[in-house]
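[Discussion] Sanity-checking designs against the backbone

I'm trying to build intuition for which residues belong where. Below is a structure token string of 205 positions. I'd appreciate it if someone posts a full sequence so I can compare it with mine line by line.
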């Protein structure tokens, strides 16, 4: 009986201490291989102009941005013209912070990004902050978590300017049905504790 009590207590303590594991990727092929099944929003159907909210099939993006559809919108940022590698039609100038809210839980999110001025960019899930490696050419950054999430924030800080911005495209994520969302490690540990305590109650009957 005492061993069952200790087992249940230990499992509960371990569950409270467990934290989700998150892996960062700077390689798009590596990220996509790790996801297995994924969706890429190429933003190819955008209409030009500024905005503060963008509703897509699986998510809503909120924050200040400009929809770049033609050269007259945001200039020529293609690699062939000496730009940082973004092609038309369809990408965003993202300013300051942007929040993605997904209709269903996901386990991974990544994006192409770039700027031609010194800057920093982070992806934030709750109190977890992941820093991308700044680049003056088109780059990729993604995160894969063992704990599903429905919201994350992209923060950008451009140094030496009154406003901040980053070019963004090809939002990539792993939308999964709610019935297939894996139970987080904490949940598994709590189930173990519940099973141990249940066994103890049966012994007392």
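Best answer:
Here's mine. Compare freely.
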């Amino acid at each position: 009986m005492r061993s069952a009590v200790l087992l249940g207590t230990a499992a509960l303590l371990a569950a409270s201490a467990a934290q989700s594991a998150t892996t960062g990727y700077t390689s798009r092929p590596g990220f996509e291989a790790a996801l297995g099944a994924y969706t890429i929003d190429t933003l190819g159907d955008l209409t030009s102009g500024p905005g503060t909210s963008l509703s897509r099939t699986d998510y809503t993006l909120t924050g200040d941005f400009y929809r770049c559809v033609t050269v007259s919108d945001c200039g020529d940022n293609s690699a062939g013209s000496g730009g940082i590698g973004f092609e038309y039609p369809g990408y965003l100038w993202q300013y300051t912070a942007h929040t993605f809210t997904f209709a269903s839980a996901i386990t991974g999110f990544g994006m192409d990004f770039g700027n031609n001025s010194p800057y920093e960019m982070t992806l934030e899930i709750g109190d977890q902050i992941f820093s991308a490696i700044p680049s003056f050419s088109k780059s990729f950054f993604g995160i894969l978590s063992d704990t599903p999430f429905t919201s994350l924030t992209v923060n950008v800080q451009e140094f030496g300017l009154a406003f901040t911005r980053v070019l963004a495209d090809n939002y990539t994520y792993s939308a999964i049905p709610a019935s297939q969302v894996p139970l987080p490690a904490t949940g598994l540990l709590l189930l173990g504790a519940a099973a141990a305590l249940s066994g103890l109650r049966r012994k007392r009957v």
